[in-house]
Amino acid sequence: MSKILVIADQKDNKIKKSTFEVLSEAKKLADASGSSLEAVILGEAIAQEAKVLAHYGVSKIYTVENSMFKNYLNRPFIDGLKKVIDASSPKLVMVPTSESVKDYLPGLVGATNACGIMDCSAVSLDGGKVQIERPLMAAKAVSKMESSDDLVILSIRSGSFDAVEADTSLSCDIESVDLGTVDIKAVFKELISAQSDRVSLDDANVVIACGRGVKDKSGFELVEKLADVFGAAVGSTRALVENGIAEPSLQVGQTGKVVSPDLYIAVGISGAVQHTAGMSNSKVIVAINKDEEAPIFSLSDYGLVGDLFDIVPKLTEAVKELKAN
Amino acid sequence: MKFFVCCKQVPDVAMAFQIKDGELQKDDLNYVLNAYDASAVEESLVIKDAVSELDLSLVLMGAEKGKEALRKGLAMGANDAFHIEDDAFEGSDSHAAANVLEAFFKDKEYDAILCGKQSQDMDMGLTGGLLAEKLNIPYVTNAVGLEVNEEAKSILVTRQGDAGQEKVELSFPCIVSCSNDMNEPRIPSLRGIMQSKKKPMNKVSVADLGLATDAVGKSGSKSTLLSMDFPKARKAGEKFEGEASELVSTLIDKLTNEAKVL
Amino acid sequence: MILELNEDQKMIRDSARDFAEKFVAPVARQLDVTQEFPVDLIKQAGEMGFMGVAIPEQYGGSDMDYVSYVLMMEEISRHCASTGVILSVNNSLVCDPLLKYGTEEQKQKYLKPLAMGEKIGCYGLTEANSGSDCASMKTVAKKDGEGWIVNGSKIFITNGTNADTFIVFTSTDASLGNRGITAFIIERDMPGVSVIPMHGKMGIRASGLSELVFEDVKLTDEHRLGDFNKGFKVAMTTLDAGRIGIAAQALGIAKGCIAESVKYSKERAQFGKTISNFQGIQFMLADMHARYDSARLVTLKAAFLKDSGKNYSLYSSKAKILAAETATFASNKAVQIHGGYGYIKEYDVERFFRDARITEIYEGTTEIQKLVVSSTLIGR
Hints:
The complex is a heterotrimer.
Chain A: E1 3-7, E2 10-11, E3 14-15, H1 17-33, E4 36-43, H2 47-50, E5 60-65, H3 74-88, E6 92-96, H4 99-111, E7 115-120, E8 122-126, E9 129-136, E10 141-147, E11 152-156, E12 173-176, E13 186-193, E14 206-210, H5 217-230, E15 233-236, H6 238-242, E16 263-267, H7 273-276, E17 284-289, E18 302-305, H8 308-324
Parallel strand pairs in A: 1-4, 1-6, 4-5, 5-12, 6-11, 7-11, 14-15, 14-16, 16-17, 17-18
Antiparallel strand pairs in A: 2-3, 8-9, 9-10
Helix pairs in contact in A: 3-4, 5-8
Chain B: E1 2-7, E2 9-11, E3 19-20, E4 23-24, E5 31-33, H1 35-50, E6 55-61, H2 67-76, E7 80-84, H3 94-105, E8 112-116, H4 127-135, E9 139-149, E10 154-160, E11 164-171, E12 174-178, H5 190-196, E13 201-204, E14 224-229, E15 238-241, H6 244-258
Parallel strand pairs in B: 1-6, 1-8, 6-7, 7-13, 8-12, 9-12
Antiparallel strand pairs in B: 2-5, 3-4, 9-10, 10-11
Helix pairs in contact in B: 2-5, 3-4
Chain C: H1 7-34, H2 39-48, H3 66-79, H4 81-101, H5 104-115, E1 121-124, E2 140-144, E3 147-157, E4 165-171, E5 181-187, E6 193-197, E7 210-219, E8 224-225, H6 231-267, E9 269-270, E10 273-274, H7 279-307, H8 313-338, H9 348-358, H10 366-378
């Protein structure tokens, strides 16, 4: 093996925790196969933040800085990353899955004539072959796939790997790559951001998610209060998004976000596979549901059988008290 | 205006399925039009209802029985369908599929190609973007809303992004991959089913597209599916019943002292 | 021998299934509680083409075959047997005889809006003291110049509360028994027609059950369906086909029982494992499914014979015997598998258990069907 390149994912010029998970696994793969590990980060002003990547054993960092990255469009990412891939010529590229990555990666795979595989949960190298595991059939099955292509680009499912401790003593070369002119046929018009001061689902250590059981907006607000005392992100099932009770960006599951926090509290969620596909990698799962037969209890570490309208306010008070001490 | 929707026929993933010796058991599966593709068809039909001049064609590559999925799209209201059917497609990955679609669209006139954001069986989500790159046209994925501006020859796509909903304007021709959050696809009425029988179903072969058989199927693919299995189930933990305040103190105790996440 | 649905039939089954899951299932439990006729749902079903499945396009129908009709009925009844019977009555007890016996004018005026789902039909044969023995009916149509005057009443009429068009059987010559019956088309808004809703049914509670009362209802000869004194034949041939629809309804109930039981047995844990691991449960599920499958094959054969223009009445009787007994058997087992939960309204099988029972009774009891079958074996 020659080289592994990790594409860092960042939000507001801060690297997301999913990047460190991928970097940690990529470093293991690189060490085991005698390959080198490089990383690339793209953004508006990421020169400073880029240095953090070195703490995970990266031997070279590419930065692509440009004001075009302010608002997300796929073309600048495809062009910028193609330049870096041409310069770095890795055998394997790994990137944490996100909505932006799901958007630009197909184009990048096409532009570099690579083999692309999305949403991998395990990666191994076998000589010139890359072998992966990934969920499919609505996450009801997992598959093993392989590719012996010259360039393989993988997106990595959140929570698949543990991030190692950063070694802040490490540093490496940083090369700035010029994006150049981008032939853009798409115009960014506006961002309707989900107005929230809460931590985002992607980065949250604690997620409080709710489903149909909360019934309406006032039930949803109970869950928001609990999230606030935890400093947690709020998640929801598709049903609540469809009812207009929760923002679409809060949807966790097969068609929403895949999250893997340290603690996931499922409030009034029955546990259909469409939802659990997005949260079953969480470290500790708590379920609160009045139906003792709810499938969510089959994967929760701690299940509370009872009325969420009684339990959630009491839990909010208890956590508030705990945090105060 | 001329739109195409790329369709795929997939096993109904809502139904139980069996995996034996690493392989999906295909005999008992019920095959359906990919739900994300159905949303792409529905969205096109909504536009068609508003802009009567829209001509909507469907295209599907796959086995003979794939025409059932096309007929569903026709029964929903599409004008005609192209069925790229060839035995050589067995084992195709997204790359091989994009090769075939590129060859199909090379000499076609169109304003937009809509597709589902991924297929329900593979959940890969590569084909639309790959095809756009091959055709050298702009694309957007995970669309949850579309507004067509016929005069400006552009389409305003609302996509669900990481930070919220992003509105992006694409000029024709372009590719939009659609989320199922976009709409509720209509259920074909019996009248629609009856009429769909009379709509053109054009057969296309790999040879018609000028493709060599080794550009498609397994040899045209860059990845191989080795095996399938059921995921390891997470083990059920403890379940507590009782009075709310007791449950809460038990939970706090467990989270603090056992799981150590508080 | 080909035992596979064709492409159209599969598409219709899928559409009916999607419709049932999306629109019928969410309201089914509520309909059972309120006993209210599902007006909006039936309107939607009409737009889907479910109110006149096997009626030609020129008369507003969907121009499909009876096999398709069976598939539609099964998918709808899997979630709601009330909705199933409403559709069944409109399709096979009202549209069918209008198509078979109606004049061109009657088809244009009555059949078309019924098949399109713009209007709803009901079938008035049963009376308080006249069930299987229809020669004893007391509703009388008296010749009045060129026209007729109808007096009497009909009970247990499905769709009655909301029907616009009634097919009503009357005695036109009591001395001739079955040969003195004539069928008429009666419109709801005619003077002298009144509809009295009947409540308190055990199952299929949202089917709009009513008593129809006729007081000096004046009809012209244009309201007569079929020939004078030939109403018995109209009634019997209509019921022959109707039984296929009821068999399909029963199959739907059985299918629902099996689906809910499989689901529940995989969720419910006792003695440290889900009850699906116990042979006692497995045997019940196997019995339910084996009976369902065999009843379904006979029902599809009855529909196939009808579609082929062959005599199907023997098969429609056998289908109804088997499917109805399967529905009650499966619903009984489904409640047993659910244990205490099967006995409360929070679980659908409680409703299925009550809904299933009627299928052995209406449109000819199981015993009447057995007479039909045995008479062909031993001759009459």
